[in-house]
Amino acid sequence: xxxxxxxxxxxxxxxxxxxxxxxxxxxxxxxxxxxxxxxxxxxxxxxxxxxxxxxxxxxxxxxxxxxxxxxxxxxxxxxxxxxxxxxxxxxxxxxxxxxxxxxxxxxxxxxxxxxxxxxxxxxxxxxxxxxxxxxxxxxxxxxxxxxxxxxxxxxxxxxxxxxxxxxxxxxxxxxxxxxxxxxxxxxxxxxxxxxxxxxxxxxxxxxxxxxxxxxxxxxxxxxxxxxxxxxxxxxxxxxxxxxxxxxxxxxxxxxxxxxxxxxxxxxxxxxxxxxxxxxxxxxxxxxxxxxxxxxxxxxxxxxxxxxxxxxxxxxxxxxxxxxxxxxxxxxxxxxxxxxxxxxxxxxxxxxxxxxxxxxxxxxxxxxxxxxxxxxxxxxxxxxxxxxxxxxxxxxxxxxxxxxxxxxxxxxxxxxxxxxxxxxxxxxxxxxxxxxxxxxxxxxx
Length: 444
Hints:
alpha/beta, six-stranded mixed beta sheet, three-stranded antiparallel beta sheet, transmembrane helix, vWFA_dom_sf, Tad_N, membrane
């Protein structure tokens, strides 16, 4: 007998149908406990979801306000000024509130900005408090959320600096500028001389009648031979260009320019001016001194020139205001004194006769300026050794190794730049300037 055919089992209930049955059972629950439990569970779920949304909006708003306060603070600190007045603080707050008004739902409840100025820095700090409206917070009776933030910035004080240029224009600055120029100068002069003296012509009574067109100065010009005095002019022009390019305050740098040679000749080519173009315009007037009619060479008088600067340059100030600038003397020379006057380093050189002393520069000459905190930068256009010249061998060679060190002893630490024959005086001048400005920032 065969087995009966198997009967089909119950069909599976689809998921949707099961959910429908559960909801019907939930709806028929007479005690209401299921409904109450579900409702109670739903409230914190909705509150948490709403809080998450509102907290995200609050964080986004805070990020925008933080950016706004940072921008307002940096705008003030980057101004070309060493002070922060009430108008600047008002402008800072206005800028911040203008940007904050662009953030939806935000209300600024307080804003405070405070400047700080010390002997070496200037700064500003700002804090704000604000509220941002909530979207779902009302469910929990929270209509706003608090925001607070701050920003601060500071920088070094920008110093005002006055520069006094003291430029040696004695006949020795008529030395040919490079080794090639020296060789060419010797080639075109009858006695093989590397110096281009500048001479007058005279009448029978000894009165000046004009320039001597046959002096070695004109010989150099006719043969396109560059002299140190010409390079010095170029260096001054380059200095002005760099100063103008690097000023961070209006009229931050001012300059005055002098040349000197003998005990009676210190010439102010340009008085102290904030218009540095005037210095550049005066640079072509830097020229080597004329040789004396009697061919006397005592035309490099450091002591009288430095003494003159000491009477002209006031004590150095703080640099915080234009009325109290830091003061620098930039001194360009070959370092060998050749004078008719008395000197403090009498034993260091040679008293050739009663009217002429030749010797190295005396560092003590600079003490009075240093006592007034005037900083001294020196470019040493190295004295050319001429070992085939008897005068050089007798009166310069014995102390030639002291010329540079004695100039360096006069210079403020780090502001001494020697330039050898053929070296770049312009590069030395620019290095001196940048180093001088940096030294002020570091010191203060």
